[in-house]
Design goal:
- It is built from two helices and six strands.
- By secondary structure, it is of the alpha+beta class.
- The chain has a single domain, classed as Folate-binding fold (2-Layer Sandwich).
- The protein has a four-stranded antiparallel beta sheet. A two-stranded antiparallel sheet has the order 1-2.
- The longest helix has 9 residues.
- The structure holds zinc ion.
């Protein structure tokens, strides 16, 4: 089981978190002009990355805040954790990994 460092609460067990899918997906807009195929691609046709992946996580049994994590899906190594609204590039210089 992973130990994840919430950017608001600190280190907690993986059991306190919920996986929220890939990070940095851009919702197609305007919704009224988006085709069914574009919605299907946005909602369901997600990459299944084997290796380093940017993901959304929620501290659902803690503070309830969402954040992003750069994680290796093979080794479960957490490379960095960064708040929503922060760029991956700015987070790479931080010390938020677990
Ligand atoms: Zn938290």
């Amino acid at each position: 089981m992973m130990n994840i460092k919430c950017p608001y609460c600190g280190n907690r067990s993986e059991a306190e978190y919920s996986f929220g899918g890939p990070a940095h997906l851009v919702r197609p807009i305007p919704a009224a002009e988006v085709s069914d195929e574009e919605w299907v691609d946005y909602l369901f046709m997600l990459d299944n990355v084997k290796g380093v992946s940017a993901e959304r996580w929620c501290h659902s049994h803690g503070c309830g805040q969402w954040f992003n994590m750069l994680r290796n899906t093979v080794t479960h190594e957490i490379l960095t954790i960064y708040k929503m609204g922060e760029s991956l590039e700015s987070a790479k210089g931080g010390e938020n990994g677990a």
